[in-house]
């Protein structure tokens, strides 16, 4: 079986979420769950200042683009290319080019799965990053994001902090 890769699809500006919903509906209707694995509109948190108050809102990282994790074949290409609002795949001519690992890393989408030797309730030490040399008890683990949430003492209070699996080790 062919390997799934991430591809970028160009859409009409402002239609990203509509395209995502249309592709997901088509996947369901045509039973393509094994070939088109995921459709994403990359978002980022942005702090806006309005009327003197700070507000965190989600904005599209790449307006006019949608990311699709799929196995490229004639059927999946046809389904995506002929979805209303899609203008085409990103790549030379009509040949879609998959994103490389290096291009995916800053998006936080494709991360090598790190196996860990600790679980919730274990005490861990942070060995890298902002919280280096901090010790905490694991409160929650998110294997999808490859992070552990620990409580650290900050200004005399227990505060939950999310830390990458790569930055910690079991004590």
Task: Describe this entry's structure for a reader.
The model has no long low-confidence stretch (mean pLDDT 85). The chain is globular, with a radius of gyration of 20 Å. The chain has helices spanning 16-30, 74-81, 101-104; strands at 5-11, 36-40, 43-50, 53-60, 65-70, 86-89, 123-126, 135-142, 147-154, 157-164, 168-170. The strands form three sheets. A five-stranded antiparallel sheet has the order 10-9-8-7-11, with no helix packed on it. The protein has a four-stranded antiparallel sheet with strand order 2-5-1-6, with helices on one face. It has a two-stranded antiparallel ribbon with strand order 3-4. It is built from three helices and eleven strands. It starts with a strand and ends with a strand. It folds into two domains: 5-107, NusG, N-terminal domain (Alpha-Beta Plaits, 2-Layer Sandwich), CATH 3.30.70.940; 123-170, SH3 type barrels (Roll). The chain is an alpha+beta fold and 171 residues long.
């Amino acid at each position: 079986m062919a390997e799934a890769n991430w591809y970028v699809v160009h859409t009409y500006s402002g239609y990203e979420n509509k395209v995502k919903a249309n592709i997901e509906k088509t996947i369901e209707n045509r039973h393509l769950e094994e070939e088109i694995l995921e459709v994403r509109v990359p978002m980022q948190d942005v702090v806006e200042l309005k009327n003197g108050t700070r507000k965190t809102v989600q904005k599209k990282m790449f307006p006019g683009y949608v990311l699709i994790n799929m196995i490229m074949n004639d059927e999946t290409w046809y389904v995506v290319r002929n979805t209303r609002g899609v203008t085409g795949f990103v790549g030379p001519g009509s040949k879609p080019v998959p994103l490389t690992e290096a291009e995916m890393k800053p998006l936080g989408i494709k991360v090598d799965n790190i196996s860990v030797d600790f679980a919730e309730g274990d005490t861990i030490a942070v060995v890298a990053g902002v919280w280096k040399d901090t010790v905490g008890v694991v409160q929650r683990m998110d294997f999808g994001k490859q992070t552990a949430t620990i409580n650290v003492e900050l200004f005399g209070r227990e505060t939950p902090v999310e830390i990458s699996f790569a930055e910690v080790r079991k004590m």
